[in-house]
Amino acid sequence: MLTHYPEFYKNAIPKNGGPRVPDKIKEPTAFAEKVKNSLQATLKSENATAITYTNEDKELMIWYNYHFLGRGKPATHIEVLSSMSDEQLNDKIPDIFKKIFKEITLILNIES
Length: 112
Prior knowledge:
With 112 residues, the protein is mainly α. It has one domain (6-84). The chain contains six helices and no strands. The longest helix is centred in the C-terminal third of the chain and has 17 residues, at 95-111.
């Protein structure tokens, strides 16, 4: 969900809250260290390299760490989803949800 709606998750922070994210251009070393630490916290390993993740995914781990390891998944998802219109949600809905909804519809049609 974070990769499909990053701006909504980044905006779902308490006033004056959120992670301190060093400027990627002005503070490249501090930014890289923040990404590395967030990656290790998210993947729960100091040896994690996340080679299967894109650079964008790795940078989003700063936000994953803040929202889901620091605050809680259900509360964060509810807060973000309730701030979105149906159109905004449907615009970038992950494919897995489309598959799930299709299967649910098939099951309900069979059973009714």
